């Protein structure tokens, strides 16, 4: 396999580069069209509005690297915040409410991993199920209305500013660094790549495949939890359903950033760049007074363009056939 | 993950005509019957001709879209664009009708538009060999954007009497939408089980390489499956427009996951090779009946999300874990 890759030239690298070319092109076009595109205020707005998608995209990247998919994260995002907010409203101490909320979210992540790897249900179906559970659970807990959260500790941790940057943006970068280390610099990250690349080989090599995949799902749900808490700090509300529309964008961000849907290849930086790309487009369209749904057409076309070109160039896949 | 598929698929009568009484589709039938009896005994007004027709009417669109995606899933692919193609088709149809274009021509133009979408989906999937989930997500976004643009983000009222009569009215008390569902069920059944296309499709889903070496034109069959899927989506969209007498760019999108869930719990395997037309209809009936019965019992709409999620996980864990 490696010899083949070398023989046909490593088109993967070129493929990864495409998103960067696309983003530079988009930035150039918009900087000409949009007044004040490079102003600090505008970049602050871009960074602030990309936080949730980025954090979710990082979570998905772990699952995609394992060769699975998780479409539940957007719905699961609201589970911890609603449980946390309702318990807090009942007078429970901050820490206990947070731990109970976090436990519920991590349990859903564990359920995803367990059902997928132990029972052999395709992860698309498993997470379709947990998506329903997340949607229902958060609405039931919050009685389908946003719950106000005015908690000093939440604001101390995630709200306000640090060094002139909103703290949620700082947290985003902290999470990027931590997940980068976890995915690219640790034994777990290496195992995860191997499991995603070739599960059989990873097993023969002595990697605990089941554990590795389940942990990937739990990590993903942890990032959904984090995204949910950042949203609470930003908006002062725990709103059921707030993350559901973000799900598709998060998957798109991860995939156009170079993470392979087939597993074995994850990129945290790519997820960040992908999210940045999506946010710049919607930000610029908003500044230009264009309707937001045009961004869907642009994003969809860019996905097709990037992936089709790289797919057609990927001769190795043609040689070896599908699957 | 998918290595064991197809060898001992439950429900396939390989040796003789012995019926597997515990196959997934029959179990779904038992559960449906059980819930039907429970609701008939507990929910006032559930077991009446009126309410049965309500269930049949509200399941029709989900069932038709579910039938369409059954073909794609049988080929081992997936089509998410069914979430927005109905809205695009519906909006295009409504706008053309409002402009005074005759009904046959309108339907023809709309049909061409969605066939092109299906063709693009299929072509990119077979030529660039990109996972269909991401390509159809891209076309999902593009179709959504176009639907918003042509409808100008507002409902388009349809007053064309022939159209409303053909798709939205009743015939001696029998709603035509139900007739169309039955019609498409028969068409799908014949296509899937009685034509060469259907047989080839199942082979391709089972083992693409083997199908290729057996002389099946794999690419064409897959492209046709995608075209069938988007055509059925258009039919769902047209029925939706006829029901509401208007077209909105956001209609039917929430039914995407319900349609996929109906197909999957009906016994169509996400791994490909096993399409189940009657299972999809049963699945659509079951999910619609469940929400109808629970709503009569006074259960909140959002509790249904949770119940649906649990059912998807339980039903499919059962069927996959036995393989």
From TrEMBL, chain A:
One of its GO terms (molecular function) is transmembrane transporter activity. It is a multi-pass membrane protein. One of its GO terms (cellular component) is plasma membrane. The chain crosses the membrane at residues 20-39, 45-64, 71-88, 94-117, 124-142, 162-183, 204-230, 242-261, 268-287, 293-313. CDD domains: TM_PBP1_transp_AraH_like. Its main location: membrane. This is Autoinducer 2 import system permease protein LsrD. It comes from Paenibacillus abyssi. The lineage of its organism: Bacteria, Bacillati, Bacillota, Bacilli, Bacillales.
UniProtKB/TrEMBL annotation, chain B:
One of its GO terms (cellular component) is plasma membrane. One of its GO terms (molecular function) is transmembrane transporter activity. The keyword Plastid does not apply. It is a multi-pass membrane protein. The keyword Transmembrane helix applies. Keywords: Cell inner membrane, Cell membrane, Membrane, Transmembrane, Transmembrane helix, Transport. Its main location: membrane. The chain crosses the membrane at residues 27-49, 55-73, 80-101, 107-126, 133-151, 171-191, 212-235, 247-265, 277-296, 302-320. InterPro entries: ABC_transp_permease. It is found in: Cell membrane. Pfam families: BPD_transp_2. This is Autoinducer 2 import system permease protein LsrD.
């Amino acid at each position: 396999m490696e010899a083949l890759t070398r023989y046909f030239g490593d088109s993967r690298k070129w493929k990864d580069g495409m998103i960067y070319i696309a983003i530079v092109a988009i930035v150039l076009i918009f900087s000409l069209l949009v007044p004040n595109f490079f102003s600090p205020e505008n970049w602050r707005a871009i960074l602030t509005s990309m936080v949730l998608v980025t954090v979710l995209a990082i979570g998905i990247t772990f699952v995609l690297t394992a060769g699975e998919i998780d479409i539940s994260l957007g719905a699961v995002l609201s589970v911890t915040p609603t449980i946390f907010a309702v318990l807090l409203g009942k007078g429970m101490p901050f820490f206990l409410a947070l731990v109970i909320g976090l436990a519920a979210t991590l349990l859903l992540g564990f359920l995803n991993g367990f059902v997928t790897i132990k029972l052999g249900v395709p992860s698309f179906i498993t997470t379709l199920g947990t998506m329903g559970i997340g949607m229902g659970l958060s609405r039931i807990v919050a009685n389908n209305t946003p719950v106000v959260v005015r908690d000093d500790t939440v604001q101390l941790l995630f709200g306000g500013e640090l060094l002139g940057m909103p703290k949620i943006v700082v947290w985003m970068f902290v999470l990027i660094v931590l997940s980068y280390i976890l995915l690219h610099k640790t034994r777990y990250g290496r195992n995860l790549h191997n499991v995603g690349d070739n599960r059989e080989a990873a097993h023969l090599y002595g990697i605990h495949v089941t554990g590795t995949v389940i942990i990937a799902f739990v990590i993903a749900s942890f990032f959904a939890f984090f995204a949910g808490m950042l949203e609470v700090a930003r908006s002062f509300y725990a709103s059921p359903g707030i993350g559901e529309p973000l799900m598709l964008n998060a998957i798109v961000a991860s995939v156009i950033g170079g993470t392979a849907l087939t597993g074995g290849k994850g990129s945290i930086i790519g997820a960040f760049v992908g999210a940045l790309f999506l946010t710049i487009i919607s930000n610029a369209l908003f500044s230009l007074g264009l309707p937001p749904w045009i961004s869907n057409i642009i994003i969809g076309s860019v996905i097709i363009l990037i992936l089709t070109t790289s797919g057609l160039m990927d001769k190795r896949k043609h040689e070896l056939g599908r699957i | 993950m998918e290595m064991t598929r197809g060898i001992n698929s439950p429900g396939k009568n390989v040796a003789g005509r012995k019926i597997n009484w515990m196959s997934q589709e029959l179990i779904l039938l038992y559960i449906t019957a059980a819930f039907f009896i429970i609701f008939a005994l507990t929910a006032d007004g559930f077991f009446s001709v009126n309410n049965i027709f309500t269930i049949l009417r509200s399941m029709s669109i989900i069932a038709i879209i579910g039938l369409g995606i059954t073909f794609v899933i049988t080929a081992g692919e997936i089509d998410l664009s069914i979430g927005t193609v109905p809205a695009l088709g519906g909006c295009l149809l409504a706008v053309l009708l409002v402009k005074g274009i005759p009904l046959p021509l309108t339907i023809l133009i709309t049909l061409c538009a969605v066939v092109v979408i299906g063709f693009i989906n299929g072509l990119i999937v077979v030529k660039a060999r990109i996972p269909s989930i991401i390509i159809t997500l891209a076309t999902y976004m593009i179709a959504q954007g176009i639907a918003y643009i042509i409808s100008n983000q507002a409902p388009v009222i349809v007053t064309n009497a022939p159209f409303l009569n053909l798709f939205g009215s009743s015939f001696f008390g029998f709603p035509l939408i139900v007739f169309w569902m039955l019609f498409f069920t028969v068409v799908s059944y014949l296509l899937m089980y009685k034509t060469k296309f259907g047989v080839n499709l199942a082979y391709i889903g089972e083992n693409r390489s083997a199908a290729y070496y057996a002389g099946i034109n794999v690419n064409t069959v897959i492209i046709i499956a995608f075209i069938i899927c988007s055509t059925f989506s258009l039919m769902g969209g047209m029925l939706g427009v006829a029901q509401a007498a208007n077209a909105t760019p956001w209609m039917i999108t929430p039914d995407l996951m319900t349609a996929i869930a109906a197909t999957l719990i009906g016994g169509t395997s996400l791994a490909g090779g096993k399409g189940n037309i009657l299972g999809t209809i049963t699945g659509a009936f079951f999910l619609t009946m469940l929400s109808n019965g629970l709503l009569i019992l006074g259960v909140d709409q959002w509790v249904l999300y949770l119940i649906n999620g649990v059912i998807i996980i339980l039903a499919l864990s059962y069927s996959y874990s036995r393989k």
